[in-house]
Design goal:
Blueprint lengths: L14 E5 L3 H12 L3 E5 L5 H8 L4 E3 L13 E4 L4 H14 L3 E3 L12 E5 L2 E5 L6 H14 L2 H20 L3 H12 L3 H6 L3 H16 L32 E6 L10 H7 L4 E4 L5 H4 L7 E4 L11 H13 L3 E6 L9 H10 L3 E5 L4 H8 L13 E5 L11 H4 L4 E5 L5 H10 L7 E6 L7 E6 L3 H7 L6 E5 L2 H5 L5 H5 L2
Parallel strand pairs: 1-2, 1-4, 2-3, 4-5, 8-11, 8-12, 9-10, 9-11, 13-14
Antiparallel strand pairs: 6-7, 14-17, 15-16, 15-17
Length: 490
C-alpha cells in the first residue's frame, strides 16, 4: 500500500517556489501556472520556455543558486535539480517551515509526489506509482487518455449544467444518486461523442421518464427536466424504470486486451454481466464489484444453460431496469448465437445494442503469424464452425475444397472428418494446414503440417480446445513470417 495520500490542491493565488531552471523545471512550472499559482523560480540558468514566461510576467525569477530562506511564504515547493545536496537543503527548509516539497526523481527528499496527470475539460485523472516508476505512470496515463477524451469532457460539462436542476427537484440524496448513475451508465455518451448536445439532453429526458414514469414533456430551451419522486413505493428514494438495456459485447478471441474500447467502457458500467466459458476472467473482473455475474457458458461435454434460458435471463434483468452486458467470445454474430439473442430481446420489447468484437477467425491465425489472405496465394477465405463438420453436414464441401483459405473455428474434435471430406473432394494431401490452440493467450500452441498428417500431429501434441484450424497455402507463407516465432509460442 502506498504511503502517499492522493489529493487535488487548489493553488489559485498561492505562492509556489520551484528550484531549478531546466526542461523538467519548465514542465512543472507550466503545470503550476495553469493551476493558478503564483510561481517563483530560483535558478542561475533558465530554459528558453522559462525565459519566455518570465518576459511575459507569468512567473517571478531569481537568477541565482538556491539559498536558505527562498521558501519563505511558499505554500508549495518543487526541487527540480540534479544536485542531491541542493535537494537535501531544500527539503530541510521545507520540513522546518511545514511546506510540502516534491524533489523530482529523489523520493528520499519528497513529502509529496507529483502524479502523471491527464486533463480533459473539467476531468482530471492522476496516476501514481508511489514514486517507484514515473515512466509506468506516464504510460498508464496515456492509456487513460485514450479512454477519457473530449466526449467525456462534453458530457461532464452537460451534467454540470443539469446538477442544480436535479438537486432542486430531487432533494432526497439517495434517489438523486440512483438517477445520476442511471444517466452516466446509459448511452448518453454516444450523443456526446457526436457533439449532439440536444440529443444528449433528449436521451437524458428519456431516462428520467423511464425512471419516474411521468408523461413526456416538451420543455423549452431553458426549461428544467421533469422529475418527480414515486410516492406509491415504500420510500420516496426508490425509483422505477420501464426497462434497462442489453449490450451484446464481443470479448475478442481470448487475450483480454483485444476487447474494443467501447466494449470495455460498457463492461465497466454494467449492472449485470452474462458471460461465456471462453471469456477471460480478467475481463469479467473489469465489471464493477457490485455487478451481478452470471456464467452461462457451455461446459466441455456440452452441459450448461440452454439458449432459451439465456434469452429469458437477459430479458428478465433488463426488465428490472438493469444495464446488462452479454459478454461473448470473439464477435457476437460469428457463430455466437448473438442473432438469436437479439431476436428474443426484440420480441420482448427490450432495448439492445451490438458491440462488435475481434473474431477468432482472423485474430487467432494472425497471432500465429498466418495471414488468412495473401496477394500471391489467397484472395478469399471461408469460415465454418467445427460442429458443422462432423457427422451429417449441410456444408458444400466441394466448394470449400476450392477455397484458397479455409478457417474452422472450434474444429479440433472434428479435424479427422474435416480432412477426410476435403480429401474426398480433391484437396491435395500436401495442402498446408495448421492448428492453433488457445490462440492469443500466453499458452498458445501451434502445430503445422499438411492434410495428410495434421490430424495425427494435433493428437500427438495433445492440443486442447479452444482451437482454430487453418488450411491453405497461407500456412506456408506463415512459416516465414518474421514475427511468427515471437507470437505463436509453438
Amino acid at each position: 500500500m502506498s504511503a502517499f495520500y492522493p489529493v487535488f490542491l487548489d493553488l489559485r493565488g498561492r505562492r509556489a517556489v520551484l528550484i531549478g531552471g531546466g526542461a523538467v523545471a519548465e514542465q512543472k512550472v507550466r503545470g503550476l501556472v495553469a493551476a493558478g499559482a503564483h510561481v517563483t523560480v530560483v535558478s542561475p540558468d533558465l530554459s528558453a520556455g522559462l525565459t519566455d514566461l518570465a518576459l511575459r510576467g507569468a512567473i517571478e525569477v531569481r537568477r541565482r543558486p538556491y539559498r536558505g530562506g527562498d521558501l519563505a511564504g511558499a505554500w508549495l515547493a518543487i526541487a527540480a535539480t540534479d544536485d542531491r545536496a541542493v535537494n537535501e537543503a531544500v527539503y530541510a527548509e521545507a520540513e522546518r517551515l511545514g511546506i510540502p516539497l516534491n524533489a523530482v526523481d529523489d523520493l528520499e527528499h519528497c513529502s509529496f509526489i507529483a502524479p502523471a496527470i491527464h486533463h480533459e475539460g473539467d476531468i482530471t485523472v492522476a496516476v501514481s506509482t508511489g514514486g517507484k516508476s514515473p515512466a509506468l505512470a506516464v504510460r498508464l496515463r496515456q492509456r487513460i487518455a485514450r479512454l477519457v477524451g473530449r466526449a467525456e469532457a462534453r458530457l461532464c460539462a452537460l451534467l454540470g449544467e443539469l446538477r442544480p436542476e436535479l438537486a432542486e427537484r430531487v432533494p432526497d440524496a439517495r434517489a438523486r444518486t440512483a438517477l445520476w448513475y442511471a444517466i452516466v451508465d446509459s448511452d448518453v455518451i454516444d450523443f456526446a461523442r457526436r457533439g449532439d448536445s440536444e440529443g444528449a439532453r433528449g436521451r437524458i429526458d428519456d431516462l428520467v421518464r423511464q425512471a419516474l414514469a411521468v408523461p413526456r414533456l416538451k420543455p423549452g430551451p431553458d426549461s428544467p427536466l421533469p422529475l418527480r419522486a414515486v410516492h406509491h413505493r415504500a420510500h420516496s428514494s426508490e425509483w422505477e424504470r420501464e426497462t434497462g438495456v442489453v449490450y451484446l459485447v464481443g470479448a475478442g478471441p481470448g487475450d483480454p486486451g483485444l476487447i474494443t474500447s467501447k466494449g470495455l467502457e460498457l463492461l465497466r458500467s454494467a449492472d449485470v454481466v452474462v458471460y461465456d466459458r471462453l471469456v477471460s476472467a480478467a475481463l469479467v473482473a473489469e465489471a464493477p464489484a457490485s455487478a451481478e455475474r452470471v456464467f452461462v457458458g457451455k461446459q466441455p461435454h456440452g452441459t450448461g444453460m440452454r439458449q432459451r434460458d439465456i434469452n429469458a435471463l437477459l430479458v428478465d434483468r433488463a426488465r428490472r431496469g438493469r444495464t446488462v452486458v452479454r459478454l461473448k467470445g470473439g464477435d457476437p454474430f460469428v457463430f455466437g448465437r448473438g442473432a438469436e439473442e437479439c431476436e428474443a430481446l426484440r420480441a420482448a420489447g427490450v432495448r439492445f445494442q451490438v458491440i462488435p468484437g475481434v473474431t477468432s477467425a482472423t485474430a487467432v491465425p494472425a497471432a500465429a503469424g498466418i495471414p488468412v489472405t495473401h496477394r500471391r496465394v489467397a484472395s478469399a477465405f471461408a469460415v465454418v464452425a467445427g460442429h458443422e463438420c462432423d457427422g451429417r453436414s449441410d456444408l458444400d464441401w466441394e466448394a470449400l475444397a476450392r477455397v484458397p483459405t479455409l478457417v474452422v473455428l472450434m474444429g479440433l474434435s472434428a479435424l479427422p472428418d474435416i480432412v477426410a471430406r476435403l480429401r474426398a473432394q480433391g484437396a491435395a494431401a500436401d495442402t498446408p494446414a495448421a492448428v492453433i490452440a488457445s490462440g492469443t493467450l500466453p499458452e498458445q500452441r501451434t502445430v503445422v503440417g499438411t492434410l495428410e498428417d495434421i490430424a495425427d500431429l494435433a493428437a500427438a501434441a495433445r492440443l486442447e480446445p479452444p482451437a482454430t484450424v487453418v488450411i491453405g497455402e497461407v500456412v506456408r507463407v506463415g512459416l516465414t513470417h518474421p514475427v511468427r516465432e515471437l507470437v505463436s509460442r509453438a
